[in-house]
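User: quick one
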Amino acid sequence: MIYTSASTSQTDAYRAGSEIGEALKHISPEVVLLFTSITFEREYGDFFAGLYDGLETKNVIVFGGTGDGIYETSLTAHYGVCALGVASGGQTRWSAAVVTGVGADSSGTARQCAAAALERIGGTVDWGFVLADGVTADGTGVVSGVQDILTVPFIGAMTGDDRKFTRSRIFYNGREIEDGVAILLASGNIPFITHSTSGFTAIGTTGKVEASQGKTISRISSQTPLAFISEQIGTPFGETDHGILALATSCDSSEKNFCLRATFRINTLSGAITTFGSIAERTTVRVSCANREQLLNAVSTGIKTLTRSGFTPAAAIIISCAGRKWQLGNCGEEEVQAIKNAIGSQIPLIGFPSFGEIGPYLMDDDTYSKSYFHNATCVICLLGA
Amino acid sequence: VNYRLLSLTENAPHGFQYISTLDQKDVRRWPFALLASTREVADTALEPFGASLAGIIVTLGSEHAWQSHSLSPQLFYCTLPYNLKEHAAHLLRAHLELLETCKQAENRIKQQQQDLARAYEESNRTKQEFIQIKRSLVEELSERRLVEEALRKSETHYRLLTENATDVVWKLDNEFRFTYISPADERLRGYRAEEVLGHHVFEIFDEEGITVLKNAIRQRQEEEQCSSIKRSISFEVRHRCKDGSWVWGEVNSIQDRSDDGRLIGYHGISREITERKKHEQEQLKIDKLESLGVLAGGIAHDFNNILTGVMGYISFAQKLIEPKHLSLKPLSEAEKASARAAELAHQLLTFARGGEPIKKIVSLRDLVYETASLVLHGSNVKENITIPDSLHAIKADEGQLSQVFHNIIINATHAMPDGGTLSITAHNEIHSNSTTLELPPGPYVNLAFSDHGCGISEENIKKIFDPYFSTKSTGSGLGLASANSIVNRHGGLISVSSVEGCGTTFTLHLPSLGVTQSNYQMDNVVQAESDHTGGSILVMDDEDMIREMITEMLKYLGYQVTTCRNGEEAIALYREALEAGEPFAAVIMDLTIPGGMGGKDAAGHILALDPTAQLIVSSGYSNDPIVSDFSSYGFAAAVAKPYRISELGQLLSSLFLIP
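Assistant: Done. Structure below.
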């Protein structure tokens, strides 16, 4: 398996596309994973024209989406494009599918998309990558829908924009898709290892979600969520706390692993909160938080977890929450740098700050938990040669 | 650079690449120089590639000229003189490098614009967050001020309530030592707050109270082990006053716990209940008296029945012997003794039930002398009674009036512990509408009891007729209250005047008949002795002895007598006689028949058969309301047991004289 990555901050859409294409062309990629900022709105046609011109072929799966910036081996930026070319020399079969309407029925649409991708690959699946519109979709529902079809661990992300929460795009073979979910599946030789890490610590007492509708929670343990969180942190919970405080939801019997739900919006009148991803009624939750050091330590610890078994990475995919980037107060360089320090600075690496992360936990016995939808989390996936 | 020199003409100069059609890679990736036969040919070829092109459209002409293209700011027309055609590549290369530099500069500007926009947005967001934080802080501060103000008001409110409350509000620490006590405690027990704070609560209770408190605490602890509900505890204990006296208090207490549930003390309220406890004790006495009364009433009833036989037969025997017979005097003494026994029974009944007085003509003079001599016998108080012979008779219940006099005279002796004289005077008086006393107009007797004792204070004199008011430690507080009640039931009034240190006068105003007793009795006796009409009398009584005695008496008086044991028999006999056309002239009916229909119910049935029936109620319960108000129950007359033959004769004569 051969990988190569490229990035550009070129603002001319065609030039950016052609630069990327030309940079990847030499390995004749079968798949191009492509992450961009929202820079080329209304010009993605030109971008893809340049990309295909640069690649000098359209016989390639182009799969990706937008986020709040890009991570790449040589560039970490708020704006730009990054891509990872993957070539297996025919040893890996690939399939991809996209379905729109994820906002109306996240679970059903994801299930439909996974089924379509699975049908196209025509065999066992070894690895999967899921992207869904982070503005419209409910990540909890997306993961639930995919899990109905796929039995292998999969990673993924919710696409986003530059913190405006107004639009996001999924890229699928030269098309830009709104309100969609897309899945890339691989079958065959694709060595990988993946883990999810956040650095957040659950504090306070456990509450039970008693009333929720979609991503809006209206009662926790006989209180409004606002009152519950304020009680736990001891101070009034204001809008300024976005991305800092999250609700830790129980994943399994293990106290160690939990999925976070960051607060997206607060209704100060009703005391209800809207999170990045739904929380089902009767789910137990705890308020959780992390400071800057804990965020960075989590990434360092996470990458150590991945490399403890001697896995030799040939490429890396990083899906890290946009909220972590905001909290770290930069473009996310420090998180990427920590990973590069661990795997080597020349290893092709791409990724983006997302509006929701999807991935499993690598357990102590090197098996995987099932994949979960996360907020405020960093999902690292190392790919082998 | 070479491949960026493009030519749409076949005879391209050196360095130019001839192409028949353009693709976007030729013209969009790098700045280009495009040689075309005409500008129009070049424009047509470039049209599909949009507006962001950077390049030079080269045509050959007579002179060297440059012109901007309208399609893009980095697109130019260049006219090269024919003679420079072979040098075109050389000439244009520097321009293309310059265009690429411009393009890169433009890219950097765009990147910087993006970064600037991002920085602006971040700055704006930070500013908004700062504003939001500031607003939240201001709101929080305002809210805190409001809360503090509300708290202050609430504290003031509760402090005012606490410090002005009649009840004592207090707090104890977890070692039962006072940490707060309201000023009411000083009013109640005489201790200032600083004399109480820090002291153990046990110091203010007696041994019994401490035991009560310990039991209450233990009971609550047991309850809390069974239930999470935290109830207050309530108990009644005596509190020690600073002057050494004790007051009763009802204590309500609840635990004071910290936010983490730790017991940090107790707080509660104590309410003085001394008066209530006194009333409770008095009520207990009353309950006991009532029980005693029921017993006394039962004894008096049976006693009256027996006495009816005794008195009846004595009076009957007196009728049967000659006026000068030696046995007449002993019989007369026996009758007097029986009469006194009957009076005792009557007093017992009065004590037992109170109620309406059974009035008869009473000699007030005799009653006063009798009571005064009885009460003052053996005491160091002498009576000085001044009652004229002309004092009018009154109709009164002898027993009840005797009780009134008794109570007043007893009070007088208490007021003169070192002895003295009690003056009792009486005179007739007439009240009209214009008199100040609230009495109906008419003739009254005025009876005054004056002592020279300690007198009654102005404050107490208003309360002396209140039930349970007493200035004596052993007093029940019922004596004057019952005296007032009895006099009122007789249609009279009792008043008091007193000068502290000089003495007290109780004055009774009792309705009189307007004539002396001797005149009144003479008229009636003459009438009663003369008329025995004869006729048939039905007697209903459950006592065999009484039935036999009445039968003898009535036969002696000239009546035919039929007897029966209860109401059912009486109704049947009355119906029979009525249907036979020989109705009874009168029916004498006992009021109470154990196990059978009594006089009251039987009277109703007989009157239903014969509304003109003459029914006489007779009862050992001489103070029964039916006896005192017989006409309301359909009876024509009443006779209280025991009675003499003369009384029975008078009654029947007066009954049959009624038109």
